[in-house]
Design a protein that fits this description.
The complex is a heterodimer of chains A (480) and B (77). Chain A is an alpha+beta fold. Chain A has 14 helices and 23 strands. Chain A folds into two domains: 229 residues, Pnp Oxidase, Chain A; 129 residues, UbiD C-terminal domain-like. Classes of the chains: A alpha+beta (480), B mainly beta (77). At the A-B interface, α5, β9, α6, β14 and β17 of A face β1 and β3 of B.
Chain lengths: 480, 77
């Protein structure tokens, strides 16, 4: 759809979904406040923001909130910006199956925009080259919160499908040093483990400002041997154009705004954090992985793209929304085709709402067990709400109706203690342990005892055509 | 210079200056706890007595911080 960040920003501008903040702002706290304000404009239609007058960084540009609304999300996939969340979910689900057709092309390094400027070690200072700022007040330093980190499997370096592109938080330590949070279940941790077992550095390329669908894929929990590049191409409908890093070790998006080439120093962990994280709380200071940056390449007049995260709802909730829903839906429906849709928008799937047509009594609860045992669900999924197949799980008014009228207390609410948990969730105690809460708000089916003998007021699909007419009438009324 | 966060003396040095030459700010880094901050941050963040003590690392043994990505044993050659 869009070959790089710049093409997408142009589309956002055309659609009224990008604004420029031209007044001078302080790196702290104003950049944070403006980023927060953009998120607070609502997940429906909040715009992306480019700040181009940050004190001390005159002439440098920062883009935030690029993925910060469902309108921008729809535009990213070439859909009208008013496309409903449910329709976006089903379209994404359809394109997901296009993975085998995801095409990748390579361009020579001297033709790649990301190599327009090449800076060797000693010639760059990351804290000056990037208009960085404290994302949250008590962060341990200046963070890259939206980087796509590329690395290979040291035991299988020629396997393109295992080349990983993942989003991990990175703290800039000084001119050429980064700290990275790699959690044990991240794909890069598998690769790092293999390199560290040999006491060898792991080459990495930290890409900033890439095409928006690649950013989306880099934060998606897909299989270890599935290529994020191919999947992004499949979702985009155009080939992913890559080039080699200048040292030839890794493949990077040719249109990236910045590429930081470097390596993870083996068997070293240094203090990192805290960092305001997606559950809305700070993670603590930990000993994390160290990256030495050897070279920086960038486009002329580059745009630094970063993301606000913290107290939800923020850009990360939109970015991690549908890409959490679709893989889980795929995995559950492999064996349970009665599942209609999965809404895992809430804090990367800590809470999920699943619409299902139960085949027999108790079936919905079995669906909950399945959700809790998907690869992502094992650690993340904590609260599982089940609703009938005719309830739109993305429409919280309908979900609350189902919960209000279906739940029978002890028969429908269960707590399973002592399960894995997500360490960044403050409800995970000790960090990494958790509970599964199952709330079954489906209508009982035989042989389970029915609710009292009532008749439901039927859904009215015939009303949809009148809804379209009313929408057009309202649009016409607005134009007057 | 003393670190605002861990309180270590003489552990801080300048790691960046405003690149537009305006002299608007400097960035400092503590070599012990890796805390980084900018001279132009709001006054509250530049005075450790005004910090939320939850975030202070004074007296904390940094070697005992959690390691979320453990270092594996070396492979036998």
């Amino acid at each position: 759809m869009f070959k790089d960040l710049r093409e997408f920003l142009a589309k956002l501008e055309e659609e009224g979904q990008l604004v420029y903040y031209n007044d001078e702002v302080m790196p702290e706290p104003e950049v944070r406040l403006i980023s927060r304000a953009a998120c607070d404009m609502g997940s429906g239609t909040a715009p992306a923001v480019i700040m181009n007058n940050i004190k001390g960084y005159k002439g440098q540009r920062l883009a935030v909130n690029v993925h910060g609304s469902w309108a921008n999300h729809a535009l990213m996939f070439g859909m009208p910006k008013t496309t409903s969340l449910k329709d976006q979910f089903f379209e994404l689900n359809r394109r997901w199956d296009n993975y085998p057709n995801g095409k990748v092309e390579w361009v020579d390094g001297d033709k790649a925009p990301c190599h327009e400027v090449i800076l060797d070690e000693g010639k760059f200072n990351l804290l000056e080259l990037l208009p960085c700022y404290k994302v949250n007040e008590y962060d341990g330093g200046f963070y890259l919160s939206k980087a796509s980190v590329v690395s290979k499997d040291p035991d299988d370096p020629d396997n393109f499908d295992k080349e990983n592109v993942g989003t991990y938080r990175l703290q800039i330590q000084d001119a050429s040093t980064l700290c990275m949070q790699g959690l044990a279940f991240h794909d890069i941790a598998i690769q790092l483990r293999k390199a560290e077992e040999r006491n060898e550095p792991l080459p990495v390329a930290v890409c900033l400002g890439v095409d928006p669908v690649l950013t989306f894929m880099a934060s998606t929990p897909i299989a270890y041997d599935q290529s994020e590049y191919k999947m992004a191409a499949a979702l985009n409908g155009i080939p992913m154009v890559l080039t080699k890093t200048t040292d030839g070790k890794l493949d990077v998006p040719a249109g990236a705004e910045f590429v930081l080439e470097g390596e993870i120093v083996p068997r070293v962990r240094v203090p990192e954090g805290p960092f305001g994280e997606f559950p809305g709380s700070y993670s603590g200071t930990r000993r994390q992985v160290l990256i030495k940056v050897k070279r920086v390449t960038h486009r002329k007049d580059p745009i630094f793209e970063n993301l606000y995260l913290g107290r939800p709802w923020s850009e990360i909730d939109t970015l991690l929304g549908l890409n959490t829903c679709v893989p889980m839906f795929k995995q559950i429906t492999e064996t349970m085709p009665e599942v209609v849709a999965v809404n895992a928008l809430y804090q990367h799937g800590l809470t999920v709402i699943i619409a299902v047509n139960p085949r027999f009594g108790g079936y919905a609860k079995s669906v909950a067990f399945r959700a809790a045992s998907t690869p992502h669900g094992i650690s993340y999924v904590k609260n599982i709400i089940l609703v009938d197949g005719d309830v739109d799980p993305f429409d919280l008014e309908k979900v609350m109706w189902a919960m209000s009228t279906r739940i029978r207390g002890p028969q429908d609410v269960f707590v399973i203690p002592g399960t894995p948990g997500m360490p960044l969730d403050p409800g995970s105690e000790p960090a990494g342990m958790g509970v599964k809460v199952i709330i079954d708000a489906t209508t009982p089916v035989a042989p389970e005892r029915q609710l009292r003998d009532v008749r439901m007021v039927c859904p009215m699909p015939e009303a949809k055509k009148y809804q379209d007419i009313l929408t057009d009438l309202q649009k016409a009324a607005n134009k007057k | 210079m003393k670190c605002i966060r861990c309180g270590k003396e003489d552990s801080v040095h300048v790691v960046a200056k405003a690149p537009d030459g305006s002299g608007a700010w400097e960035i400092y880094k503590c070599d012990v706890c890796n805390y980084g901050w900018r001279s132009s941050e709001p006054a509250k963040m530049l005075d450790s007595s005004k910090w939320d003590p939850f975030f202070s690392l004074i007296g904390v043994d940094l070697n005992k911080l959690m390691i979320p990505c453990p270092i594996p044993p070396l492979r036998e050659k």
